[in-house]
Each structure stands twice: as structure tokens, then as C-alpha cells.
From TrEMBL:
It comes from freshwater metagenome. Residues 15-272 form the Aldehyde dehydrogenase domain. GO terms for molecular function: oxidoreductase activity, acting on the aldehyde or oxo group of donors, NAD or NADP as acceptor. This is Unannotated protein.
Amino acid sequence: MVDVPVEPAGVPRGRAMVERADWAARAFARYDAHSVRRIVQAAADAGAAHARQFAADAVAETGFGVAEHKLLKNLACSSGLVEAYRDTDFVTPRVRAGERIVEIPRPAGVVLALTPSTNPVATTYFKILACLMTRNAIILSPHPFAKQVSVAAARVMCEAAIAAGAPDGCIQVVEEPSIPLINALMTDERIAVILATGGTPMVRAAYRSGNPALGVGPGNVPVLVDSTADLALAARSIIASKSFDNSVLCTNESVLIVEEVVADKLIAALKREGGYLASPEETSALRDLLFEGDHPTTKWIGRDAAVIAQAAGIRVPPKTKVLIAPFDLVVPEEMLAHEKLFPVLGMVRVVSASRGIDAAKAVLRITGAGHSAAIHSQNAQTVMDYAAAVRVLRVSVNVGSSLGSSGIETNLAPTMTIGTGFFGRSSLGENLEPKHLVNIARIAYNADSSVPMPSFEGLDPWSSPSGPVPAYPVASNINEPASVTRRDPIAPEPDELREEIRRLVIEELRQIIKG
């Protein structure tokens, strides 16, 4: 008798999801711009209608952040995203007559999207809409700590998209993550690209999968305030940004670097905005509470400043939003110089803007290369010198970095996925946006103008679906509606598999800000 190898639980399910998505992607790739706009708008409207509910649900499930701030992100990544790209067409061919080239947008196909626990709904919304705008099918794999709200958010958008004419199977979500299932999805050759947003282990696994991957590295944002800065604006921006969603955005300020001549005035302004300056003893208590050896204590991620202060034995005013912890040297051994996904801001004083630039470079050598930096200054030369020196690919000026670097309060592309480029060992060097999910096929005519080139104006190879798209064919003994996903009929994973998932999740959370 020949032994037939038994595949791990979840592998057949992964293959089935990809097959279904591939079927949907091939149908979706023929849709015209009008049909795509209708589907995108319907999904975005549904997401916006549930934005407040899902913001509260995300805080309840994960314990991270502030519901009102998550609401803002959810709206920015639903109706706000549609508005940002309202005049951008990722579908219709474009004629560049002067160059004798015709460009035809071609969707990637099936996108596997890994989403984090810190920004679960906003990232789910963002990646779904980016895929719908570009006619891609998407399979979402949510972080286990946020799977309930992520599945609910995906379902809401899926149902709206299908009702508006999207093909069945174009949005699916893993309801019960398991190591074999996620591995089966990541390594399937029919996956066109993996969008990895989360901890370092997740991103590295995506790059090792053998499929194209767009991953991001950890942040550790330095913010320099020089002697020319508008101190009131700087203080207001820094406190609002650092306290936004209790610092779970990877674009939040991590280390404040202030020129000595204005340091006391800035500290006074920070206190007026809700900052609390810790004494040396209190700084030591915060360091002991928030870090275990060389990594952060994950239980404090996304918690209120007052809660952290109380746990550290520090009495703070009732309206405290951010704890400011001064230290002397930017060195790897100083944990307050590392990324902090909680409302605690490290602070160092420098004698000049030039020394401040050096300090910012030192912060980014610890972790955060390629990610983000911020500066408050009225001096264009200082801003230019800073941006040219720090190894990041986005520098927010006179604005909070949390929403500035993510494109919500600047004119950068609005995103929940920050590319760190070559500095951060990433294949993506800018804010992820829909254009990164499209390749362009180019028709190139002879450059000699004497060779005739016919007019392509008004020609379009795509069309509007003629009637409802047939549902994905399933076996007759499976009773299933055209919805987000089917539940895996395979029995639950054994205890050792659940323990392995738990171990990897804990390791990922530890790596979120360790780099």
C-alpha cells in the first residue's frame, strides 16, 4: 500500500480560496471604468456607514487605540480614499500621441493582503478599495488579535461590491487564520502580489514566499524642532500626532530633538497642549515599565498616557495626553530611542540644528531606516539639509507626522502602508497606492513620424458586464451564498498548532517596534 501524504489542515482551503479569487480576477479584468467606479463607490459608502461601529469594535477586540481616532482613519480610508482618487482612472487606455505610445492598464490579478492588529479596519478598507479601483481580486488575512472586526469590515464591503456588480469571490477573508493556511496562500503561484503590513516577521515571511511582495519596515520617527520654528504650532502638532490613536500608527513621532535655545519655551508649549515632562526618576520608572530587555512590553501598546503613568507610579494632570521622557544620548542601549507605539515621547536637547540632524540620523540607525521623519522649522536650508541627511523617504514639515507621513494631512498619497525603499530593505519606496497594483502594457509605434499611426482615441478593450456576473461554481452539496468567504470544513487545528500561532503572534508584536 502506498502512503498518501496528508496535507496540513487549511492547505486545501487555501487552494480553494485562490482558485475562487483567480476566477473572479479574470472576470473583473474585463470591466470598464464606469462599472469599476460604481463598485468602488458602493463599497466605500458601505465602509463609511459602518466606520464608527468598527472603530469601537476594533478597540474592544484589540485593546489598542482610541475609537474616535480610528473613526477618522476609517473614514479617510473609505470615502476619503475615493475622493482622493476620484479623477484618477486605473482602467481606461491612455494615448500619448506625441510619443506614439498607447498605455493599457493591466491588473495584477489575485492580491494577498496581510493586515495588522494596530490599524485593522482602516487597512482592510484601504487594501480592498485599492484592489477594487484596479480590478484586482483580494484575499485578506487579518491579524489573529483583530480577526473579528476585520472579517466584519471585509464582509460589509464585499456585500456592497457584489450588489453593485463585482464578481463573486473578488473579496475574500480568512476567518480562522492558521500557519498552514497562510503559508498555502503566500506560496501559491496564482498569487500575483502580497501586500504585507505588520510586524517584521510577517513582512520577511512575505518576501521569502517566492511571490512578489510589497512589504514595509518598522518606523522610529525623529522630529527636529529648531530655533526658527513656530513653537506653538510645533507643540500642538507633536502632541496631537503622538496622542493620535495612542501612537499605534507607525508614522508617530518617537524621539523629539529640540535645539537648546528654544527647548524651555517648547516644553512650556507642550505642557499647555497636554504633555507631561517626566523627571529623571519618572523617566527611569517609565523605561522599566515599558521595556523588557531589548523589546517593548506589548501590553502597553496603544494604551492611554494616564493609564501608563499610573502603572509607573507617576501622578499626572487629568488631561495629560503624552508623557515626555528626556534622555541624554541617542544610542541603541537607550530603549527610549527606539520606536514606541504608545504615547511616550523620548526627548533630547542639542546645541544646534546641525547637531540635531546628527541625532536624527542616530535615531534612524537604531531602527526606522527608510520610513519617516518630521521637522518644525522656517528655514528652507535646514529643512533641505535635514531631508538630505536622514535615511527616510518622507519628511513631514510643520505638521504632525502621524497623519502627515500617511498622507491624511499632507498631499502625499493617503495610505496605511508606508514603503521604506532600499534603506528599509523594501521593494516599495513610497506610500502604497492603487497604481502599485497595476502594470502598464504599452503599444509602441515606430518613432519615425513618417510611419503611419492610426488614431486610438475613444477605443477601449473593456466593457460593462451584460447582466449579473454568474456566481462562482461550487459543488452541489455545498449550500453557500456569494459572500466574503466559506468557512473551512476541516476540523479545528490541534492544540500544538494553536500554540504555535500564539507564539508567532507574540513574537510579531514584540518585533513591531524592535525592528
